[in-house]
Design a protein that fits this description.
By secondary structure, the chain is an all-alpha fold. It has four helices and no strands.
Length: 76
C-alpha cells in the first residue's frame, strides 16, 4: 500500500533518488533533530484532523428550532 502512495508524493521518484533525498535530509537536520521534526509534524496533522472533525460535528449537529425561537424572542 505504501508503494501506491509514493508516486503521489514524490512524483515517481524511485530507488536511488529516495536514498539521496533521505541522506540530504539527514545531513541538513542531523540525526537528533529528525525525531523532533516528525513529532511536531504528527502533532500538527493530529490537530488539523481534530479541527476538521469539530467543524464537521458543528455543521452536522441538529438545529434546535425552539431554542433559536426563544433566543430571538428575548432579543439575544
Amino acid at each position: 500500500m505504501i508503494y501506491a502512495l509514493i508516486p503521489a508524493f514524490f512524483g515517481g521518484l524511485r530507488g536511488w533518488e529516495l536514498v539521496i533525498i533521505a541522506v540530504l535530509i539527514l545531513l541538513l537536520f542531523g540525526g537528533k533533530k529528525i525525531p523532533e521534526l516528525m513529532r511536531g509534524l504528527g502533532k500538527g496533522i493530529r490537530g488539523f484532523k481534530e479541527g476538521l472533525n469539530d467543524m464537521s460535528d458543528e455543521i452536522n449537529k441538529p438545529i434546535d428550532k425552539k431554542k433559536d425561537a426563544d433566543q430571538a424572542a428575548k432579543g439575544e
